[in-house]
Amino acid sequence: MWRDALLIAGKDLRIEARSRVALWQVLPFSLLVLILSAFALGPGPSTLHDAAPGLFWLAVLFSTVLATQRSFAIESGEGTRDGLRLSGVDPAGVFLGKTAAVAVQLALLQVALWAGITLFFGVRLHVIWLAVVASLLATVGLAAAGVIYGALSAGLRVRETLLPLLVLPVLAPVLLSGSEVWSAALFGHAAAGESWLRILAPFAVVYVVVGIVLYGPLQEAG
Amino acid sequence: MKYVDAGYVICLSVLFVYSVSLWWRRRRLARAVATSDVSSERGRDREREG
Amino acid sequence: MRTIVLRSVGVAAIVATAATVWLGLWVTPPDQVQGTLVRLLYLHPPIAWVALYLAFGLSALASLLYLWRRTRSLFWDRLAAASVEVGVVFNALTLVSGSLWGRPTWGVWWTWTARLTSTALLLVLFVGYLALRRVPADPEVRAKRCAVAALVAFVDVPIVHFSVDWWQTLHQKASVLNATLSPTIHGSMAWTLLLGFVALTLVFVWMVTVRYDVEVMRDRIGNQELEVSLAERRAEGSTGAVNTPESSSDGIASGEAGSAEPPVGGPGHSTPVRLAAPEPTGGGR
Protein backbone atom coordinates (compact mmCIF):
# COMPACT_ATOMS: atom_id res chain seq x y z
CA MET A 1 0.00 0.00 0.00
CA TRP A 2 2.71 2.46 0.94
CA ARG A 3 4.72 1.77 -2.16
CA ASP A 4 1.67 2.34 -4.33
CA ALA A 5 0.93 5.52 -2.42
CA LEU A 6 4.42 6.79 -3.16
CA LEU A 7 4.01 5.85 -6.80
CA ILE A 8 0.74 7.70 -7.18
CA ALA A 9 1.90 10.70 -5.20
CA GLY A 10 4.98 10.86 -7.39
CA LYS A 11 2.91 10.67 -10.55
CA ASP A 12 0.51 13.39 -9.46
CA LEU A 13 3.28 15.70 -8.36
CA ARG A 14 5.24 15.09 -11.52
CA ILE A 15 2.20 15.99 -13.61
CA GLU A 16 1.87 19.14 -11.59
CA ALA A 17 5.56 19.93 -11.98
CA ARG A 18 5.17 19.74 -15.75
CA SER A 19 1.81 21.37 -16.23
CA ARG A 20 2.18 23.82 -13.34
CA VAL A 21 -1.56 24.32 -13.07
CA ALA A 22 -1.53 24.68 -9.30
CA LEU A 23 1.22 27.25 -9.59
CA TRP A 24 -0.42 29.33 -12.30
CA GLN A 25 -4.07 28.91 -11.41
CA VAL A 26 -4.64 27.80 -7.84
CA LEU A 27 -2.00 30.01 -6.27
CA PRO A 28 -3.08 33.24 -7.98
CA PHE A 29 -6.65 32.32 -7.15
CA SER A 30 -5.91 32.02 -3.45
CA LEU A 31 -4.11 35.36 -3.41
CA LEU A 32 -7.03 36.81 -5.32
CA VAL A 33 -9.38 35.69 -2.55
CA LEU A 34 -7.30 37.74 -0.13
CA ILE A 35 -7.40 40.77 -2.38
CA LEU A 36 -11.13 40.43 -2.87
CA SER A 37 -11.59 40.19 0.89
CA ALA A 38 -10.15 43.65 1.09
CA PHE A 39 -12.66 44.83 -1.46
CA ALA A 40 -15.44 43.20 0.53
CA LEU A 41 -14.46 44.38 3.99
CA GLY A 42 -13.16 47.81 3.14
CA PRO A 43 -9.64 49.19 3.37
CA GLY A 44 -9.64 49.83 7.10
CA PRO A 45 -6.52 48.20 8.47
CA SER A 46 -8.02 47.14 11.77
CA THR A 47 -10.92 45.23 10.19
CA LEU A 48 -8.62 43.34 7.89
CA HIS A 49 -6.11 42.75 10.66
CA ASP A 50 -8.73 41.14 12.87
CA ALA A 51 -10.29 39.16 10.05
CA ALA A 52 -6.95 37.86 8.78
CA PRO A 53 -7.02 34.35 10.28
CA GLY A 54 -10.54 33.67 9.02
CA LEU A 55 -9.76 35.02 5.58
CA PHE A 56 -6.61 32.93 5.42
CA TRP A 57 -8.52 29.74 6.07
CA LEU A 58 -11.33 30.70 3.73
CA ALA A 59 -8.77 31.09 0.97
CA VAL A 60 -7.24 27.72 1.91
CA LEU A 61 -10.63 26.01 1.80
CA PHE A 62 -11.53 27.36 -1.62
CA SER A 63 -8.11 26.39 -2.87
CA THR A 64 -8.62 22.87 -1.53
CA VAL A 65 -11.68 22.53 -3.73
CA LEU A 66 -9.69 23.64 -6.76
CA ALA A 67 -6.69 21.47 -5.98
CA THR A 68 -8.93 18.45 -5.50
CA GLN A 69 -10.81 19.06 -8.72
CA ARG A 70 -7.50 19.30 -10.52
CA SER A 71 -6.29 16.09 -8.89
CA PHE A 72 -9.14 14.23 -10.53
CA ALA A 73 -9.23 16.23 -13.73
CA ILE A 74 -5.83 14.89 -14.73
CA GLU A 75 -7.40 11.46 -14.90
CA SER A 76 -10.58 12.45 -16.67
CA GLY A 77 -9.31 11.39 -20.09
CA GLU A 78 -10.94 8.34 -21.56
CA GLY A 79 -9.77 5.17 -20.01
CA THR A 80 -7.37 6.69 -17.53
CA ARG A 81 -9.37 5.86 -14.46
CA ASP A 82 -10.10 2.37 -15.70
CA GLY A 83 -6.44 1.95 -16.46
CA LEU A 84 -5.59 2.96 -12.96
CA ARG A 85 -8.03 0.47 -11.52
CA LEU A 86 -6.99 -2.38 -13.78
CA SER A 87 -3.30 -1.84 -13.19
CA GLY A 88 -3.71 -3.53 -9.85
CA VAL A 89 -2.59 -0.60 -7.77
CA ASP A 90 -4.01 -0.83 -4.26
CA PRO A 91 -6.94 1.63 -4.00
CA ALA A 92 -5.89 2.60 -0.50
CA GLY A 93 -2.51 3.39 -1.97
CA VAL A 94 -4.12 5.52 -4.65
CA PHE A 95 -6.04 7.38 -1.96
CA LEU A 96 -2.99 8.00 0.18
CA GLY A 97 -0.91 8.99 -2.82
CA LYS A 98 -3.46 11.46 -4.12
CA THR A 99 -4.00 12.85 -0.63
CA ALA A 100 -0.29 13.30 -0.20
CA ALA A 101 0.05 15.10 -3.52
CA VAL A 102 -2.83 17.47 -2.74
CA ALA A 103 -1.48 17.99 0.78
CA VAL A 104 1.93 19.01 -0.55
CA GLN A 105 0.35 21.53 -2.86
CA LEU A 106 -1.87 22.91 -0.11
CA ALA A 107 1.06 23.20 2.27
CA LEU A 108 3.08 25.24 -0.21
CA LEU A 109 0.01 27.32 -0.92
CA GLN A 110 -0.35 28.12 2.75
CA VAL A 111 3.18 29.41 2.89
CA ALA A 112 2.34 31.81 0.08
CA LEU A 113 -0.93 32.77 1.75
CA TRP A 114 0.84 33.42 5.01
CA ALA A 115 3.14 35.80 3.15
CA GLY A 116 0.03 37.31 1.62
CA ILE A 117 -1.76 38.05 4.86
CA THR A 118 1.43 39.34 6.44
CA LEU A 119 1.83 41.76 3.56
CA PHE A 120 -1.76 42.70 2.81
CA PHE A 121 -3.36 42.64 6.24
CA GLY A 122 -0.41 43.68 8.32
CA VAL A 123 -0.44 40.76 10.73
CA ARG A 124 2.49 39.08 12.34
CA LEU A 125 2.88 35.47 13.42
CA HIS A 126 3.81 35.41 17.08
CA VAL A 127 3.42 31.76 18.03
CA ILE A 128 4.94 30.09 15.00
CA TRP A 129 4.92 26.49 16.19
CA LEU A 130 1.19 26.64 16.89
CA ALA A 131 0.42 27.91 13.41
CA VAL A 132 2.66 25.33 11.77
CA VAL A 133 1.23 22.38 13.70
CA ALA A 134 -2.31 23.55 13.04
CA SER A 135 -1.57 23.95 9.35
CA LEU A 136 -0.01 20.52 9.04
CA LEU A 137 -2.91 18.79 10.74
CA ALA A 138 -5.49 20.81 8.88
CA THR A 139 -3.78 20.21 5.55
CA VAL A 140 -3.86 16.45 5.97
CA GLY A 141 -7.53 16.56 6.93
CA LEU A 142 -8.44 18.89 4.09
CA ALA A 143 -6.60 16.81 1.52
CA ALA A 144 -8.04 13.52 2.75
CA ALA A 145 -11.63 14.73 2.85
CA GLY A 146 -11.14 16.49 -0.48
CA VAL A 147 -9.85 13.40 -2.22
CA ILE A 148 -12.70 11.26 -0.87
CA TYR A 149 -15.30 13.65 -2.18
CA GLY A 150 -13.33 14.21 -5.33
CA ALA A 151 -13.50 10.50 -6.06
CA LEU A 152 -17.19 10.54 -5.28
CA SER A 153 -17.94 13.24 -7.80
CA ALA A 154 -15.19 12.36 -10.26
CA GLY A 155 -17.19 10.64 -12.94
CA LEU A 156 -20.09 13.04 -12.87
CA ARG A 157 -20.66 15.78 -15.38
CA VAL A 158 -21.86 18.16 -12.67
CA ARG A 159 -18.70 17.67 -10.69
CA GLU A 160 -17.59 21.31 -10.85
CA THR A 161 -20.64 22.50 -8.96
CA LEU A 162 -21.23 19.37 -6.96
CA LEU A 163 -17.82 18.98 -5.38
CA PRO A 164 -17.78 22.35 -3.60
CA LEU A 165 -21.31 21.80 -2.37
CA LEU A 166 -20.44 18.39 -0.97
CA VAL A 167 -17.05 19.01 0.48
CA LEU A 168 -17.18 22.53 1.92
CA PRO A 169 -19.67 21.76 4.72
CA VAL A 170 -17.52 18.80 5.66
CA LEU A 171 -14.49 21.07 5.88
CA ALA A 172 -16.27 23.58 8.10
CA PRO A 173 -14.72 22.23 11.34
CA VAL A 174 -11.29 22.80 9.84
CA LEU A 175 -12.24 26.35 8.92
CA LEU A 176 -13.45 27.02 12.42
CA SER A 177 -10.60 25.40 14.33
CA GLY A 178 -7.96 26.61 11.92
CA SER A 179 -9.13 30.20 12.26
CA GLU A 180 -9.19 29.94 16.03
CA VAL A 181 -5.71 28.48 16.25
CA TRP A 182 -4.24 30.97 13.80
CA SER A 183 -5.98 33.79 15.58
CA ALA A 184 -4.22 32.64 18.74
CA ALA A 185 -0.93 32.30 16.91
CA LEU A 186 -1.21 35.71 15.25
CA PHE A 187 -2.43 37.68 18.21
CA GLY A 188 -0.35 35.95 20.82
CA HIS A 189 -2.58 33.91 23.12
CA ALA A 190 -1.22 30.39 22.65
CA ALA A 191 -3.19 28.63 25.35
CA ALA A 192 -6.55 29.36 23.75
CA GLY A 193 -5.29 28.00 20.47
CA GLU A 194 -4.02 24.68 21.73
CA SER A 195 -7.43 23.34 22.65
CA TRP A 196 -8.58 23.80 19.07
CA LEU A 197 -5.80 21.53 17.88
CA ARG A 198 -7.83 18.79 19.52
CA ILE A 199 -10.37 19.12 16.75
CA LEU A 200 -7.90 19.32 13.88
CA ALA A 201 -6.02 16.18 14.82
CA PRO A 202 -8.98 13.75 15.06
CA PHE A 203 -10.43 15.27 11.90
CA ALA A 204 -7.31 14.39 9.99
CA VAL A 205 -7.07 10.90 11.46
CA VAL A 206 -10.73 10.10 10.85
CA TYR A 207 -10.70 11.17 7.23
CA VAL A 208 -7.49 9.40 6.40
CA VAL A 209 -8.82 6.17 7.89
CA VAL A 210 -12.19 6.57 6.18
CA GLY A 211 -10.40 7.15 2.93
CA ILE A 212 -8.22 4.06 3.25
CA VAL A 213 -11.23 1.93 4.01
CA LEU A 214 -13.72 3.37 1.54
CA TYR A 215 -11.59 4.26 -1.46
CA GLY A 216 -11.80 0.82 -3.02
CA PRO A 217 -15.59 0.76 -3.27
CA LEU A 218 -15.53 4.44 -4.25
CA GLN A 219 -13.32 3.68 -7.22
CA GLU A 220 -15.59 0.85 -8.30
CA ALA A 221 -18.60 3.13 -8.10
CA GLY A 222 -16.90 5.83 -10.20
CA MET B 1 19.89 52.52 4.55
CA LYS B 2 18.78 48.93 4.45
CA TYR B 3 15.48 49.53 2.63
CA VAL B 4 17.20 51.33 -0.19
CA ASP B 5 19.85 48.65 -0.50
CA ALA B 6 17.27 45.88 -0.39
CA GLY B 7 15.28 47.67 -3.06
CA TYR B 8 18.19 48.04 -5.42
CA VAL B 9 19.41 44.50 -4.85
CA ILE B 10 16.01 42.94 -5.39
CA CYS B 11 15.09 44.97 -8.47
CA LEU B 12 18.45 44.60 -10.17
CA SER B 13 18.84 40.91 -9.43
CA VAL B 14 15.32 40.07 -10.59
CA LEU B 15 15.86 42.00 -13.81
CA PHE B 16 19.22 40.34 -14.28
CA VAL B 17 17.98 36.81 -13.60
CA TYR B 18 14.96 37.31 -15.84
CA SER B 19 17.14 38.67 -18.67
CA VAL B 20 19.46 35.71 -18.40
CA SER B 21 16.55 33.29 -18.38
CA LEU B 22 15.13 34.93 -21.52
CA TRP B 23 18.46 34.78 -23.29
CA TRP B 24 18.92 31.17 -22.30
CA ARG B 25 15.40 30.17 -23.36
CA ARG B 26 15.97 31.74 -26.74
CA ARG B 27 19.24 29.93 -27.17
CA ARG B 28 17.78 26.58 -26.17
CA LEU B 29 14.82 27.01 -28.50
CA ALA B 30 17.02 28.13 -31.39
CA ARG B 31 18.93 24.87 -31.08
CA ALA B 32 15.75 22.88 -30.85
CA VAL B 33 14.42 24.58 -33.96
CA ALA B 34 17.61 23.67 -35.82
CA THR B 35 17.39 19.96 -34.95
CA SER B 36 13.65 19.99 -35.51
CA ASP B 37 14.23 21.32 -39.01
CA VAL B 38 16.52 18.40 -39.71
CA SER B 39 14.12 15.76 -38.42
CA SER B 40 11.13 17.18 -40.26
CA GLU B 41 13.21 17.04 -43.42
CA ARG B 42 13.90 13.40 -42.72
CA GLY B 43 10.27 12.77 -41.95
CA ARG B 44 9.19 14.24 -45.24
CA ASP B 45 11.77 12.15 -47.10
CA ARG B 46 10.55 9.01 -45.39
CA GLU B 47 7.02 9.88 -46.28
CA ARG B 48 7.94 10.29 -49.91
CA GLU B 49 9.65 6.92 -49.97
CA GLY B 50 7.13 5.09 -47.83
CA MET C 1 21.25 43.55 -38.87
CA ARG C 2 18.54 42.87 -36.33
CA THR C 3 20.99 41.03 -34.09
CA ILE C 4 23.31 44.01 -34.11
CA VAL C 5 20.53 46.41 -33.20
CA LEU C 6 19.29 44.12 -30.45
CA ARG C 7 22.74 43.66 -29.06
CA SER C 8 23.39 47.40 -29.00
CA VAL C 9 20.07 48.00 -27.28
CA GLY C 10 21.10 45.42 -24.71
CA VAL C 11 24.46 47.01 -24.14
CA ALA C 12 22.91 50.47 -23.92
CA ALA C 13 20.39 49.15 -21.43
CA ILE C 14 23.11 47.70 -19.22
CA VAL C 15 25.18 50.87 -19.38
CA ALA C 16 22.24 53.17 -18.69
CA THR C 17 21.04 51.04 -15.81
CA ALA C 18 24.49 50.87 -14.29
CA ALA C 19 24.80 54.63 -14.64
CA THR C 20 21.43 55.13 -12.96
CA VAL C 21 22.45 52.92 -10.08
CA TRP C 22 25.77 54.66 -9.66
CA LEU C 23 24.19 58.08 -9.78
CA GLY C 24 21.26 57.04 -7.66
CA LEU C 25 23.16 55.32 -4.91
CA TRP C 26 26.29 57.39 -4.68
CA VAL C 27 26.45 60.58 -6.64
CA THR C 28 23.15 62.24 -5.85
CA PRO C 29 22.63 63.84 -2.45
CA PRO C 30 20.02 62.64 0.04
CA ASP C 31 16.73 64.46 -0.04
CA GLN C 32 15.88 67.23 2.43
CA VAL C 33 12.62 65.57 3.44
CA GLN C 34 13.03 61.87 2.76
CA GLY C 35 16.72 61.43 3.35
CA THR C 36 18.27 58.39 1.68
CA LEU C 37 14.87 56.93 0.84
CA VAL C 38 14.59 59.14 -2.18
CA ARG C 39 17.13 56.86 -3.87
CA LEU C 40 14.42 54.26 -4.32
CA LEU C 41 12.52 56.80 -6.34
CA TYR C 42 15.08 56.58 -9.09
CA LEU C 43 13.95 53.03 -9.66
CA HIS C 44 10.35 52.77 -8.54
CA PRO C 45 8.61 55.27 -10.88
CA PRO C 46 10.55 54.10 -13.96
CA ILE C 47 9.72 50.48 -13.17
CA ALA C 48 6.08 51.37 -12.69
CA TRP C 49 6.03 53.35 -15.91
CA VAL C 50 7.46 50.44 -17.86
CA ALA C 51 5.02 47.98 -16.35
CA LEU C 52 1.81 49.87 -16.53
CA TYR C 53 2.14 52.06 -19.57
CA LEU C 54 4.75 50.51 -21.78
CA ALA C 55 4.19 46.83 -21.20
CA PHE C 56 0.49 46.52 -20.54
CA GLY C 57 -0.32 49.42 -22.82
CA LEU C 58 1.59 47.75 -25.62
CA SER C 59 -0.12 44.44 -24.97
CA ALA C 60 -3.54 46.08 -25.06
CA LEU C 61 -2.69 47.86 -28.30
CA ALA C 62 -1.26 44.69 -29.85
CA SER C 63 -4.30 42.71 -28.77
CA LEU C 64 -6.54 45.29 -30.38
CA LEU C 65 -4.55 45.09 -33.60
CA TYR C 66 -4.82 41.33 -33.57
CA LEU C 67 -8.56 41.36 -33.13
CA TRP C 68 -9.10 43.93 -35.86
CA ARG C 69 -9.40 41.94 -39.06
CA ARG C 70 -7.45 44.30 -41.24
CA THR C 71 -4.32 44.00 -39.18
CA ARG C 72 -4.80 40.47 -37.91
CA SER C 73 -1.50 38.66 -37.68
CA LEU C 74 0.01 36.32 -35.15
CA PHE C 75 2.80 38.87 -34.86
CA TRP C 76 0.54 41.05 -32.72
CA ASP C 77 -0.54 38.13 -30.59
CA ARG C 78 3.01 37.08 -29.89
CA LEU C 79 4.08 40.64 -29.22
CA ALA C 80 1.22 41.00 -26.75
CA ALA C 81 2.17 37.80 -24.96
CA ALA C 82 5.81 38.83 -24.71
CA SER C 83 4.83 42.26 -23.46
CA VAL C 84 2.51 40.82 -20.83
CA GLU C 85 5.13 38.53 -19.41
CA VAL C 86 7.68 41.30 -19.13
CA GLY C 87 4.96 43.56 -17.76
CA VAL C 88 4.09 41.12 -15.01
CA VAL C 89 7.72 40.99 -13.90
CA PHE C 90 7.90 44.78 -13.80
CA ASN C 91 4.53 45.01 -12.08
CA ALA C 92 5.70 42.70 -9.32
CA LEU C 93 8.86 44.79 -8.94
CA THR C 94 6.74 47.93 -8.79
CA LEU C 95 4.87 46.53 -5.82
CA VAL C 96 8.04 45.34 -4.11
CA SER C 97 9.96 48.57 -4.58
CA GLY C 98 6.93 50.58 -3.58
CA SER C 99 6.49 48.48 -0.45
CA LEU C 100 10.11 48.94 0.50
CA TRP C 101 9.71 52.67 0.14
CA GLY C 102 6.40 52.69 1.97
CA ARG C 103 7.51 50.75 5.02
CA PRO C 104 9.91 53.34 6.45
CA THR C 105 7.77 56.20 5.18
CA TRP C 106 4.30 55.18 6.31
CA GLY C 107 5.23 52.47 8.80
CA VAL C 108 3.32 49.79 6.90
CA TRP C 109 4.25 47.42 4.10
CA TRP C 110 0.90 47.80 2.48
CA THR C 111 -2.16 49.95 2.48
CA TRP C 112 -5.32 49.60 0.50
CA THR C 113 -5.23 52.88 -1.37
CA ALA C 114 -6.62 53.26 -4.87
CA ARG C 115 -3.25 53.15 -6.53
CA LEU C 116 -1.83 50.15 -4.72
CA THR C 117 -5.05 48.19 -4.89
CA SER C 118 -5.47 48.69 -8.61
CA THR C 119 -1.82 47.85 -9.21
CA ALA C 120 -2.17 44.61 -7.27
CA LEU C 121 -5.31 43.74 -9.17
CA LEU C 122 -3.56 44.51 -12.43
CA LEU C 123 -0.92 41.96 -11.49
CA VAL C 124 -3.49 39.28 -10.81
CA LEU C 125 -5.36 40.07 -14.01
CA PHE C 126 -2.30 39.67 -16.17
CA VAL C 127 -1.09 36.61 -14.32
CA GLY C 128 -4.47 35.26 -15.36
CA TYR C 129 -3.57 36.10 -18.94
CA LEU C 130 -0.35 34.14 -18.62
CA ALA C 131 -2.20 31.19 -17.11
CA LEU C 132 -4.68 31.29 -19.98
CA ARG C 133 -1.86 31.37 -22.46
CA ARG C 134 -0.35 28.19 -21.07
CA VAL C 135 -3.46 26.17 -21.89
CA PRO C 136 -2.70 24.19 -25.04
CA ALA C 137 -4.76 25.30 -28.01
CA ASP C 138 -4.65 26.10 -31.68
CA PRO C 139 -2.57 29.30 -32.10
CA GLU C 140 -5.38 31.34 -33.68
CA VAL C 141 -7.88 30.29 -31.03
CA ARG C 142 -5.43 30.98 -28.26
CA ALA C 143 -4.56 34.34 -29.79
CA LYS C 144 -8.17 35.42 -29.89
CA ARG C 145 -8.82 34.31 -26.32
CA CYS C 146 -5.74 36.00 -24.97
CA ALA C 147 -6.36 39.19 -26.90
CA VAL C 148 -9.78 39.50 -25.33
CA ALA C 149 -8.36 38.71 -21.91
CA ALA C 150 -5.70 41.39 -22.28
CA LEU C 151 -8.18 44.04 -23.33
CA VAL C 152 -10.63 43.20 -20.58
CA ALA C 153 -7.82 43.31 -18.04
CA PHE C 154 -6.60 46.64 -19.34
CA VAL C 155 -10.06 48.18 -19.32
CA ASP C 156 -10.78 46.94 -15.84
CA VAL C 157 -7.95 48.82 -14.27
CA PRO C 158 -9.26 52.38 -14.63
CA ILE C 159 -12.61 51.10 -13.40
CA VAL C 160 -11.02 49.63 -10.33
CA HIS C 161 -8.89 52.70 -9.80
CA PHE C 162 -11.86 55.06 -9.84
CA SER C 163 -14.09 52.82 -7.78
CA VAL C 164 -11.44 52.26 -5.16
CA ASP C 165 -10.67 55.96 -5.10
CA TRP C 166 -14.33 56.60 -4.39
CA TRP C 167 -14.29 53.81 -1.81
CA GLN C 168 -11.33 55.45 -0.18
CA THR C 169 -13.07 58.79 0.16
CA LEU C 170 -16.25 57.17 1.47
CA HIS C 171 -14.42 55.36 4.21
CA GLN C 172 -12.36 58.28 5.36
CA LYS C 173 -9.77 56.35 7.29
CA ALA C 174 -6.38 57.37 8.66
CA SER C 175 -4.86 59.71 6.15
CA VAL C 176 -2.13 58.30 4.01
CA LEU C 177 0.89 60.46 3.97
CA ASN C 178 1.51 61.74 0.51
CA ALA C 179 5.23 62.18 0.59
CA THR C 180 6.67 63.81 -2.48
CA LEU C 181 10.09 64.71 -3.68
CA SER C 182 11.29 67.90 -2.03
CA PRO C 183 10.03 70.99 -3.85
CA THR C 184 13.44 72.09 -5.01
CA ILE C 185 14.61 69.12 -7.07
CA HIS C 186 18.37 69.18 -7.11
CA GLY C 187 19.68 69.12 -10.66
CA SER C 188 21.42 65.76 -10.42
CA MET C 189 18.32 64.12 -8.97
CA ALA C 190 16.17 65.18 -11.88
CA TRP C 191 18.73 63.92 -14.38
CA THR C 192 19.12 60.63 -12.58
CA LEU C 193 15.39 60.09 -12.59
CA LEU C 194 15.26 60.83 -16.30
CA LEU C 195 18.13 58.45 -16.90
CA GLY C 196 16.26 55.83 -14.92
CA PHE C 197 13.29 56.12 -17.25
CA VAL C 198 15.51 55.83 -20.29
CA ALA C 199 17.47 52.91 -18.88
CA LEU C 200 14.46 50.84 -17.96
CA THR C 201 12.75 51.59 -21.23
CA LEU C 202 15.80 50.18 -23.02
CA VAL C 203 15.70 47.15 -20.75
CA PHE C 204 12.06 46.69 -21.61
CA VAL C 205 12.67 46.90 -25.36
CA TRP C 206 15.41 44.30 -25.16
CA MET C 207 13.35 41.96 -23.00
CA VAL C 208 10.23 42.11 -25.15
CA THR C 209 12.22 41.50 -28.32
CA VAL C 210 13.94 38.43 -26.92
CA ARG C 211 10.72 37.16 -25.40
CA TYR C 212 8.98 37.64 -28.75
CA ASP C 213 11.62 35.48 -30.40
CA VAL C 214 11.05 32.82 -27.76
CA GLU C 215 7.33 32.89 -28.49
CA VAL C 216 7.83 32.55 -32.24
CA MET C 217 10.21 29.66 -31.85
CA ARG C 218 8.00 27.87 -29.37
CA ASP C 219 5.13 27.85 -31.82
CA ARG C 220 7.40 26.76 -34.60
CA ILE C 221 8.72 23.83 -32.61
CA GLY C 222 5.20 22.79 -31.74
CA ASN C 223 4.20 22.77 -35.38
CA GLN C 224 7.32 20.99 -36.49
CA GLU C 225 6.97 18.24 -33.93
CA LEU C 226 3.43 17.76 -35.14
CA GLU C 227 4.66 17.58 -38.73
CA VAL C 228 7.29 15.04 -37.80
CA SER C 229 4.85 12.77 -36.01
CA LEU C 230 2.27 13.06 -38.78
CA ALA C 231 4.87 12.24 -41.40
CA GLU C 232 6.10 9.29 -39.41
CA ARG C 233 2.60 8.02 -38.94
CA ARG C 234 1.85 8.26 -42.62
CA ALA C 235 5.10 6.46 -43.42
CA GLU C 236 4.13 3.65 -41.07
CA GLY C 237 1.11 3.20 -43.25
CA SER C 238 -1.24 0.43 -42.20
CA THR C 239 -0.27 0.10 -38.57
CA GLY C 240 -3.77 1.16 -37.80
CA ALA C 241 -3.29 2.51 -34.29
CA VAL C 242 -5.21 5.76 -34.36
CA ASN C 243 -4.80 8.00 -31.35
CA THR C 244 -7.77 10.31 -31.04
CA PRO C 245 -6.51 13.75 -30.10
CA GLU C 246 -7.51 14.83 -26.61
CA SER C 247 -9.84 17.76 -26.86
CA SER C 248 -8.03 20.78 -25.51
CA SER C 249 -10.22 22.51 -23.01
CA ASP C 250 -9.47 25.26 -20.60
CA GLY C 251 -10.07 25.74 -16.94
CA ILE C 252 -9.04 23.67 -14.02
CA ALA C 253 -11.76 21.06 -14.14
CA SER C 254 -10.49 19.51 -17.33
CA GLY C 255 -6.93 20.82 -17.72
CA GLU C 256 -4.54 18.47 -19.44
CA ALA C 257 -7.25 15.87 -19.76
CA GLY C 258 -5.85 12.39 -19.69
CA SER C 259 -2.26 12.98 -20.74
CA ALA C 260 0.60 12.60 -18.36
CA GLU C 261 2.42 15.38 -20.18
CA PRO C 262 0.88 18.50 -21.63
CA PRO C 263 1.19 18.65 -25.44
CA VAL C 264 3.59 21.20 -26.87
CA GLY C 265 1.49 23.89 -28.52
CA GLY C 266 0.49 22.47 -31.90
CA PRO C 267 -3.16 21.82 -32.67
CA GLY C 268 -4.52 18.39 -31.94
CA HIS C 269 -1.16 17.06 -30.84
CA SER C 270 -2.18 13.60 -29.75
CA THR C 271 -0.64 11.77 -26.87
CA PRO C 272 -1.59 8.22 -26.02
CA VAL C 273 -3.11 8.08 -22.58
CA ARG C 274 -0.52 6.82 -20.20
CA LEU C 275 0.38 7.17 -16.57
CA ALA C 276 3.78 8.31 -15.45
CA ALA C 277 3.93 5.13 -13.35
CA PRO C 278 5.69 2.35 -15.29
CA GLU C 279 4.62 -1.19 -14.45
CA PRO C 280 1.54 -2.14 -12.52
CA THR C 281 2.37 -3.59 -9.14
CA GLY C 282 0.46 -6.73 -8.40
CA GLY C 283 -1.46 -5.22 -5.52
CA GLY C 284 1.57 -5.54 -3.26
CA ARG C 285 1.62 -3.60 -0.02
What this model shows, in words?
- The complex is a heterotrimer of chains A (222), B (50) and C (285).
- Chain A contains 8 helices and no strands.
- By secondary structure, chain A is mostly helical.
- Chain A is globular.
- In chain A, 54% of the residues are buried.
- Chain B is mainly alpha-helical.
- Chain B is built from 1 helix and no strands.
- In chain B, 16% of the residues are buried.
- The model of chain B has no long low-confidence stretch (mean pLDDT 85).
- Chain C is an all-alpha fold.
- Chain C has helices at 2-27, 44-67, 74-106, 114-133, 139-170, 187-236.
- In chain C, helix 3 packs antiparallel against helix 4 (114-133).
- Chain C is globular, with a radius of gyration of 24 Å.
- The interface between A and C is large, with 53 and 44 residues.
- Beta-strand proportion of chain A: under 5%
Number of strands of chain C: 0
Sequence stretches where pLDDT stays below 50 over 5 or more residues of chain C:
174-179, 241-285
Order of SSEs of chain A, N→C? Answer: HHHHHHHH
How many helix segments of chain C? 6
The share of residues in helices of chain A is: over 70%
Oligomer class? heterotrimer
- Counting DSSP E segments of at least 2 residues, the number of strands of chain A comes to 0
Structural class of chain C: mainly alpha
- Along the chain, the helix and strand elements of chain C come as HHHHHH
Distance between the termini of chain C: 64 Å
SS-based structural class of chain A?
A: mainly alpha
